[in-house]
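ok here's Flagellar motor switch protein FliN, seq below lol
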Amino acid sequence: MENPQNPGLEFLQDINLKLSINVGSTEKLLVEILALKEGDVIELDKSVEEYVTVTLNDAPFAIGEIVIANEKYGVRIVDLAG
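and the structure came out like this:
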């Protein structure tokens, strides 16, 4: 059955793509990393309110915001990269 939104592209539907969400980063000294233990919190360089970057095969794809859905984290797409 042909997809009305993407006519003629059915053969591409089974291709695996790497979708990643960058929620932040930080830098630590090796001694700090070795001292980490269960329950420690690692602070990132982004606040909770900031948008996150969604990448597709390591290329910017969209901007989103972190949400909780069915007790799991998710990302709501706010804007597609263009």
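fwiw The chain has one domain: 16-80. kinda neat tbh
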